[in-house]
Write a structure and sequence with these properties.
The structure holds two protein chains of two kinds. Helix content of chain A is 83%, strand content 0%. Chain A is built from five helices and no strands. Chain A has helices at residues 3-18, 20-34, 37-52, 59-73, 76-92. The relative contact order of chain A is 0.12. Chain B is 28% helix and 21% strand. Chain B has helices at residues 22-34, 39-48, 77-85, 110-127, 150-158, 183-193, 196-203, 217-228, 239-248, 260-274, 290-295, 356-363, 433-440, 498-503; strands at 61-64, 70-72, 89-92, 98-100, 105-107, 297-305, 311-318, 321-323, 354-355, 367-368, 375-377, 382-384, 386-394, 398-403, 406-408, 413-415, 420-421, 425-427, 456-467, 472-480, 484-489, 492-496, 508-513. In chain B, the strands form six sheets. In chain B, strands 8, 14, 18, 19, 20, 21, 22 and 23 form an eight-stranded mixed β-sheet that branches. A five-stranded antiparallel β-sheet of chain B has the order 2-1-3-4-5, covered by helices on one side. A four-stranded antiparallel β-sheet of chain B has the order 7-6-13-10, covered by helices on one side. The model of chain B is unreliable at 1-7, 128-141, 334-344 and 443-448 (pLDDT under 50). The chains are: A mainly alpha, B alpha+beta. The A-B interface holds A 1, 5, 8-9, 12-14, 16-19, 22-23, 26-27, 29-30, 34, 58-60, 77, 80-81, 84 and B 36, 39, 42-43, 45-47, 49-50, 55-58, 97, 104-106, 127, 130-132, 134, 450-451, 515-516, 518. Chain A: It holds the Pfam family EnY2.
């Protein structure tokens, strides 16, 4: 594993160990629901299901179709806030 | 027809897994690798949950259900393992879903779903005491999607009519018959039935009445919401509400025109009292009724001794903010145009016209109490001159501003008709106790913190008074959906433009917080 990948893994370990990862996930969930992103994604999923047909659609179909849209539609303010939180966490746990 | 009362779509390929002690094994997998609740399981998860083929921890990691193997889903490492070992089931470590490689899709086996739900619920309880206050709806459980019970499915089948809320449907709008100068009551009812949180509370049937008699105002309010959202277009006749108001707020009884603001306060007071059927009288400061949750804010009063500069602080609850207007007997200091604050709120600054922000600035300015009103200072142990300043300590979810247009002084009774412009969106940050503190410490920054949305409000109702003190009429503007406004004149409801609303005189202004924090 190269240096960057090792750094990512270390950060991930620290986040998971301390439970911060779960807290951040819950925070993100709340923010994305508040700003209506979750409802947007639900509507997109319904479109895909209509297109492919309820009997034939798989979870994979949905993942492939809405992942790019989902990533693009996350509001900047939410990204900013999460980044701030992660930075604050890393500063706290710097070793 | 998404829901049927048969079990969710499972598959027969799980039968090979459901042998021996499979339930306990599955629980262990959930506890250790999906929803790790304890410090020990978290540490283990951090160390071991990486792909056995490429070492990555992202890429939708899955765990094989038959052996100890973790593999990426995205890079198909888990798929390879499934094929090679003929282990046809895997679990998604992010969401806990079970994937069947034969069906090539996630499957929902009833027994396995049950275990997943239980394990998830356990962990969410443990998350509760962490520093981030992100909980659920406050009932103490994690938010889960609603699934109908058998009884509910029955009701759905027996009542096939469905109401669809589109962007321009008018459900929730209904006129109110004037029962004899009762427009003061009608306009407040319109404002309350269009308060989103209050509407949601009553339409979710959250009031469980314990009052013996028929005189519970909260029940009547609940009925009112049923009437407004029934879809009936004929005006509603609120005779029962009027009768209850006369019973519980004697000072408002009679057929004369009353003050809408007084009615608002009386109504909130009675609703607050009836909420728990008087049980709360044991602890009036810690009431958690819906009225307090929505309307109660905290007003901080700081009295500063001019000699020793000691500050005495008290915080009082409030349901509304009454603002003096220019033209009233107490001197009003119009602030120079372009002063800080009014451009932040984007108000209609016609030359010389007063804005709501001006009124709020005046309300929160330090006021010298004068030599006739000396306060006993705890620091100086004697009576000293002091200044007093009011700021907002805690903002309510719904802020109601009362423009004091009716003057009842010893000399005369008159109505102040000065135009006060008010904004569609309001930021209360400059009037907070915390802003005042940082100003005092020299840290006050003009630029508003972009990420702090806590103090931002949106206008959703305006009550107006036309005419004179002796003979006048109340009407209201209310907001429906996001951008549609309607004028409510007793039984007559008409569409209004935002301009109509913002150009109106304004007597009671109702603002709703834009962002709600979880408790």
């Amino acid at each position: 594993m190269n240096k960057e990948a090792r750094l990512k893994a270390t950060i991930n370990q620290k986040l998971t160990e301390t439970g911060e990862r779960e807290r951040l996930k819950e925070l993100l969930r709340a923010k994305l629901t508040e700003c209506g992103w979750k409802d947007q994604m639900k509507a997109q999923c319904k479109e895909v299901i209509k297109e492919k047909g309820l009997e034939h659609v798989t979870v994979e179909d949905l993942v492939v179709e809405i992942t790019p849209k989902g990533r693009a539609l996350v509001p900047d303010s939410v990204k900013k806030e999460l980044l701030q939180r992660i930075r604050a966490f890393l500063t706290q746990h710097a070793s | 027809h998404f829901w049927t009362d048969s079990s969710p779509a499972g598959c027969s390929h799980v039968n090979g897994y459901k042998v021996d002690n499979w339930r306990q094994n599955l629980r262990v997998i959930y506890q250790c690798f999906v929803w790790s609740g304890t410090a020990e399981t978290r540490r283990r998860k951090a160390k071991s949950c990486i792909c056995h083929m490429c070492g990555a921890h992202l890429n939708r990691l899955h765990s094989c259900l038959y052996c100890v193997f973790f593999g990426c889903f995205t890079k198909k490492h888990i798929h390879e393992h499934a094929k090679n070992k003929r282990h046809n089931l895997a679990i998604d470590l992010l969401y806990g879903g079970i994937y069947c490689f034969v069906c090539q899709d996630y499957i929902y086996d009833k027994d396995m779903e049950q275990i997943a739900k239980e394990e998830q619920r356990k962990v969410f309880g443990l998350l509760s005491d962490c520093s981030v206050s992100v909980h659920s709806t406050g009932i103490g459980e994690k938010y889960t999607t609603w699934e109908p019970t058998k009884r509910e499915l029955e009701l759905f089948r027996h009542n096939p009519k469905r109401r669809k809320i589109t962007t321009n449907c008018t459900i929730g709008l209904r006129g109110l018959i004037n029962l004899g100068n009762t427009c003061f009551m009608n306009c407040i009812v319109q404002a309350l039935t269009h308060t989103p949180l209050l509407r949601d509370f009553f339409l979710s049937d959250r009031h469980k009445c314990e009052m013996q008699s028929n005189s519970c105002l909260v029940c009547e309010m609940s009925q009112l919401f049923q009437e407004f959202y029934s879809g009936h277009r004929s005006p509603h006749i609120p005779f029962r509400l009027l009768h209850l108001v006369w019973t519980h707020a004697r000072h408002l009884a009679g057929y004369e025109q009353q003050d809408a603001h007084e009615f608002l306060i009386a109504a909130l007071d009675v609703l607050h009292r009836h909420y728990d059927n008087g049980k709360k009288t044991n602890n009036p400061n810690h009431c958690n009724c819906i009225i307090d949750q929505i309307f109660t804010g905290g007003l901080q009063s700081d009295v500063t001794c001019q000699v020793c500069h000691g500050v005495s602080t008290t915080i009082d609850p409030f349901w509304d903010i009454s603002l003096d207007l220019p033209g009233s007997p107490t001197p009003f200091w119009p602030l120079s145009p372009g002063g800080d604050g009014s451009t932040v709120n984007g108000e209609n600054h016609l030359s010389g016209s007063t804005t709501l922000t001006d009124c709020l600035r005046r309300f929160t300015r330090p006021e010298h109490l004068g030599s006739n009103a000396k306060i006993k200072c705890g620091g100086c142990h004697s009576y000293q001159e002091s200044t007093k300043q009011l700021t907002m300590k805690k903002l309510p979810i719904v802020a109601c501003f009362h423009l004091k247009r009716f003057e009842h002084s010893a000399k005369l009774r008159r109505k102040i008709t000065t135009y006060v412009s008010f904004p569609l969106e309001l930021d209360m940050t400059p009037f907070m106790a915390s802003s005042k503190e940082s100003r005092v410490n020299g840290q006050y920054q003009q630029s508003v913190d972009v990420l702090n949305n806590d103090n931002k409000y949106s206008l959703f109702a305006v009550v107006n008074h036309q005419g004179t003190l002796e003979s006048g009429h109340y009407t209201s503007f209310i907001r429906q959906h996001k951008d549609q406004w309607f004028k409510c004149d007793d039984a007559i409801i008409t569409k209004a433009s935002i301009k109509d609303v913002l150009d109106s005189e304004g007597y009671l202004l109702f603002y709703h917080k834009q962002f709600l924090e979880y408790e």
